[in-house]
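Consider the tokenized backbone below.
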């Protein structure tokens, strides 16, 4: 092993001792049981819904316990960085109400919070491990390592840098000095404990309970090549150093990291640091024919946060849904209670929960149904400012009409309408109230009138008669009585039953007559109470739209 001086000479002379960092980032003064959680997204892509799901659990555990939730940017893979990723994180967290308590924007004394800015910290700890004989320089080239893997495969032994295959583990000091003197690039490898081969690592996962795994035997790289600048750590080393110095108590992360816990435990032990607690969460899944698979960033649009924000799913509905995926107990509760109840780690499933968009839409519709017209108008406008600019002008120019339209079967009723499930559905569901968003039917043969099943002539005759008799009555029942009267005068049976009993005596029934008016006013065979719709539209619009059915006059 190299002497201490030789090891120190490999690092800057002013590199602080680990004690310095220990004092610089002292244990947090928090009450017993307070959890410090963190999310460590890499800016190699945009945050996806699984990231929000994990953040939500982090936020829940820390806020419930008066702890702290930290955001750490894991940017050790600089080549794969995507521009704008960090800004997208910030926007997504804000939308879902899971912004961190501490990060580079809201520093809390444990920063910097981007790994690329923590180079010296990692170097202090790597040097310390080298001084203790628990890490060493390795000069193997990637060609040598690839070659070795082939030999291992041919011999049927586990591949990796371990035991006698760890070519620089027990190299002579002179060989090491020679490489250093020649300027050969080197990485720092952790020296796995000698007794690792054949032993087991045991730990308790807060979600899964006691787990056991083969102990790590690989001499894992902890500091990347000396030929790179900044010279950054690998994930394993950064996790141990950062989660210790940021005084994280509970590491909540994806289950793909379970198999790395053995090396992490060895690193904590070698640095004589207290271990963090782990909770490994199951990934969000998607139903596919014959089974399920992980939601895929590449294949599934619904993996992206932007999908939900762009469609206009309100954040509380999303959070209600995601909380239900974490703890199914919460799915059955009304939204407010589900948001107030804690997420319990031991109730998180081990099998990945399915993301079901139909279910989410229902939850979202239920949530929007609890909002007032004013609230809907405000949230819709906020959404439209970003995603549907031309809608903003329509909403602003017709504010009274909008509120009246939203009030139909919403204000003062026990069971408000659940017709609007996302903000992007607004045009489709409420668009007909606004002349700017509605295309009147084009004469009695318009295809939107076809489902009624009457000849265009019959449709025109009735529309014309109804228009001629039209009174803008405010009372919905009275309004409908006038429709009934005109229908009776023009050969429509008063009920479907009456019509069916004497088909040849009638043109159709009151149902067909009212459908003519409904399609004329709304463009659809389904709508809220027609009298109320007509009252909100106002007589001018009603007459113009009836004219459009007749097809021979221009609009009023
Ligand atoms: N940067 C890691 C990732 O994006 C974070 C894993 C962790 O939470 O420790 O997968």
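A designed sequence for it:
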């Amino acid at each position: 092993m190299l002497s201490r001086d030789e090891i120190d000479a490999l690092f800057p002379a002013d590199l602080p001792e680990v004690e310095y960092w220990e004092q610089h980032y002292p244990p947090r003064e928090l009450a017993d049981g307070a959890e410090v959680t963190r999310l460590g997204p890499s800016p190699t892509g945009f945050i996806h819904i699984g990231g929000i799901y994990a953040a939500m659990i982090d936020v829940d555990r820390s806020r419930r316990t008066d702890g702290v939730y930290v955001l750490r940017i894991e940017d050790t893979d600089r080549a794969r960085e995507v521009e704008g990723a960090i800004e997208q994180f910030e926007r997504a967290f804000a939308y879902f109400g899971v912004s961190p308590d501490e990060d580079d924007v809201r520093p809390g004394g444990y920063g910097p919070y981007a790994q690329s800015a923590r180079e010296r910290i990692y170097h202090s700890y790597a040097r310390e491990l080298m001084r203790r004989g628990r890490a060493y320089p390795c000069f193997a080239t990637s060609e040598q390592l690839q070659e070795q893997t082939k030999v291992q495969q041919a011999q049927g032994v586990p591949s990796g840098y371990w035991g006698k295959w760890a070519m620089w583990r027990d190299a002579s000091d002179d060989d090491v000095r020679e490489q250093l003197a020649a300027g050969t690039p080197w990485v720092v490898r952790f020296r796995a404990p000698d007794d690792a081969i054949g032993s087991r690592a045991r730990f308790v996962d807060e979600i899964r309970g006691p787990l056991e795994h083969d102990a790590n035997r690989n001499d894992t790289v902890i500091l990347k090549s000396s030929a790179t600048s900044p010279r950054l750590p690998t994930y394993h080393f950064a996790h141990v150093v950062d989660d210790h110095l940021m005084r994280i108590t509970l590491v909540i992360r994806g289950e793909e990291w379970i198999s790395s816990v053995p090396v992490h435990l060895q690193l904590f032990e070698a640095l004589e640091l207290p271990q963090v607690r782990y909770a490994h969460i199951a990934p969000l899944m998607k139903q596919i024919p014959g089974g399920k698979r992980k939601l895929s960033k590449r294949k599934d649009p619904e993996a992206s946060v932007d999908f939900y924000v762009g469609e206009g799913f309100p954040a509380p509905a999303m959070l209600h849904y995601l909380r239900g995926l974490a703890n199914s107990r919460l799915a059955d509760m009304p939204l407010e209670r589900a948001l107030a109840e804690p997420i319990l780690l031991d109730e998180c499933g081990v099998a990945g929960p399915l993301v079901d968009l139909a279910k989410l839409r229902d939850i979202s519709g239920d949530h929007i149904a609890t909002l007032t017209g004013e609230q809907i108008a405000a949230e819709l406008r906020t959404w439209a400012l970003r995603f549907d600019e031309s809608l903003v002008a329509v909403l602003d120019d017709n504010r009274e009409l909008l509120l009246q339209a939203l009030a139909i079967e919403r204000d003062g009723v026990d069971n408000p309408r659940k017709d609007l499930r996302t903000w992007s559905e607004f045009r489709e569901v409420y668009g007909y109230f606004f002349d700017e968003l509605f295309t009147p039917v084009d004469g009695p043969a318009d295809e939107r009138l076809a489902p009624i099943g009457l000849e265009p002539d019959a449709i025109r005759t009735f529309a014309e008669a109804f228009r001629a008799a039209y009174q803008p009555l405010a009372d919905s029942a009275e309004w409908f009585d006038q429709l009934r009267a005109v229908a009776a005068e023009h050969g429509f049976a008063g009920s479907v039953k009456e019509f069916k009993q004497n088909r040849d005596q009638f043109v159709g029934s009151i149902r067909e007559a009212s459908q003519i008016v409904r399609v004329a006013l709304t463009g659809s065979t389904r709508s809220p109470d027609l009298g109320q719709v007509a009252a909100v539209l106002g007589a001018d619009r009603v007459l113009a739209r009836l004219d459009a059915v007749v097809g021979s006059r221009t609009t009023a």
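The pocket of glutamic acid is lined by residues 40-42, 74, 239, 253, 257 (CB under 6 Å).
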